[in-house]
Amino acid sequence: MNQADLKTRLELAREIAVAAGKVTLRYFRSTGLEVMHKLDGSPLTVADQESERLLRDRISERFPGDAIVGEEFGEQAGTSGYRWVLDPIDGTKSFITGVPLYGTMVGVQFGDEAVIGAIYFPPLQEGMFAASGHGSWYFCGDSEPVRAAVSKKTDSTRSTVLTTCEHALARRIGNDRWRKLGSSFAISRTWGDVYGYMLVATGRAEAMIDPIMNIWDAAAVQPIVVEAGGSFTDWQGRPRIDSGDSVATNGELHQTVLDALGAGPLSSQDSH
Q1: pTM here?
Q2: DSSP of 176-230, one letter per residue?
């Protein structure tokens, strides 16, 4: 992997994550926004579609040989070895209910490895970006980016665990196991979707758990968490983004969380 190629794609990922995120603000908390539903029951709006079109157009213009896969418009083949992985609004349920904890996600793979991630939270003007070997960086508004780092906490009773949906997690591992896991941490909250992963990568939370994870939910956040010093794996402890579930931690508590989760069958009902 050429470092110059990596750097130019990181610059574009940062730029278009913000640009596409700003598109969503045209519709955020607007009256009369139509909410459609996909075949899996998950919500879809014109904001999702318009922002992904912007992402695809900008990528194809700059890197026409790169492949693209996105949540809303499927896959476009490429020849360069790079693949962009897009989620124009991660947290559409938050978006349609006027909750500002949703984000635009741009990931890049080289081969099977996630090498670049950029995320942006439009209502909050917060964002992060990372590339393999170049660290993880956080910014807010027009401030200069600062190096991000996970927390060093080793005691769950002084730590925070997050998940997107308690009901989905309980369906996967059972109510009793989730209650035991949640109560073993000082704070247990559903500050979920991509926002939870940002909290881990910036040291504001120690663990984020998702029982259902699509590749476009994971590709951007894996390098962001890992480059911040944390761990991002599937529930089997493998550093994969395509297994259908995920755990992100500060690293110190990773095995503790994996042991508490155990293994459970995936359910197509628990859509992100």
Answers
A1: 0.94
A2: HHHHHHHHTSSEEE---HHHHHHHHHTTS-SEEEESS--HHHHTTHHHHHHHTT-
